[in-house]
């Protein structure tokens, strides 16, 4: 290579690097690092969100956690959601449709390589846990005014199906055939692809409009337990200790760290297990290191959201972790 060509190549490379770093500064939602937790597989569970239904920061709140998230967007969190991806078949499935769905699906599209100009880049199906606002209201973006999807399969419990079919505006999605409601068979496994299957099971929760389900997810190599919402572990007929032992990875309801977080409110009526309780129940399992346990669905008040706080330290010292957006579990 001649000296002039070499210099031109160097200048071009430096210009490219400058564009790269400049563009990061302008991003409205800074990219959070992807964490590869397991050895690679062509089946992935991708974390799209980890906040409770109100998100972080929460509307109208200026608590310590919300102020931090407003000043430093890297501390913000999308509402809890999970994508299941089969990279070999280039298909992905969405677990819960949150109000943050527009930006959350971008990450799944990018990972599975399905970003195509001029086409509807949609999941193969949506699977819903229950009828609280953070878990299903993203369905509205599949409607006539937005993506206007065609017969997108939406899997849910029988009660949830009836709620969507008989209450507007969700019933319009059904009438216009934007979505096609499919009933989940509780405690029966069904295949999403030849490498990916899922078994729904019922859990107790505040079931005003529908019942609530969790999912046992099976890939080619590993199993993942997903329970973003539950009343508490004692209210469940099953043993959470035994259920966690059956799998390699667990993403569990970590809405509140302790009852001191929302003074003046009866947290027992809101209904979630405290992380402090989960640490005691699952401490031995976590110490053995065979099952990885992560907390998700974190309320904006959660003490563990402070990365330098005592609550986070206690969680990590005992072998647990908080789920983070962009985490990828190879299953």
Would you kindly provide a written description of the structure presented here, covering whatever features stand out?
The chain is α/β, with parallel strands linked by helices and 331 residues long. It has one domain: Ribonuclease Z/Hydroxyacylglutathione hydrolase-like (Metallo-beta-lactamase, Chain A, 4-Layer Sandwich). It contains ten helices and 14 strands. The strands form two sheets. A seven-stranded mixed β-sheet has the order 6-5-4-3-2-1-14. The termini are far apart. The N terminus is likely disordered.
Key words describing this protein structure:
331 residues, alpha/beta, Metallo-beta-lactamase, Chain A, seven-stranded mixed sheet, 21% strand
Per CATH, the class reads Alpha Beta
Give the overall average pLDDT. 88
Topology-level CATH name: Metallo-beta-lactamase, Chain A
Write the CATH homologous superfamily: Ribonuclease Z/Hydroxyacylglutathione hydrolase-like
Spans where pLDDT lies below 50 across 5 or more residues? 1-30, 33-38
Radius of gyration of CA atoms, rounded to a whole number: 21 Å
Indicate the percent of residues in helices: 25-40%
Note the overall shape.
Answer: globular
What is the chain-wise order of helices and strands? HEHEEHEHEHHEEEEEHEHHEHEE
Class by alpha and beta content: alpha/beta
- Tell me the strand percentage band: 15-25%
Tally of DSSP β-strands: 14
Biggest sheet overview: 7 strands, mixed
Number of helices: 10
CATH architectural type: 4-Layer Sandwich
Q: CA-to-CA gap between the ends? A: 47 Å
Widest sheet: strand ordering:
6-5-4-3-2-1-14
Q: What is the count of distinct domains?
A: 1
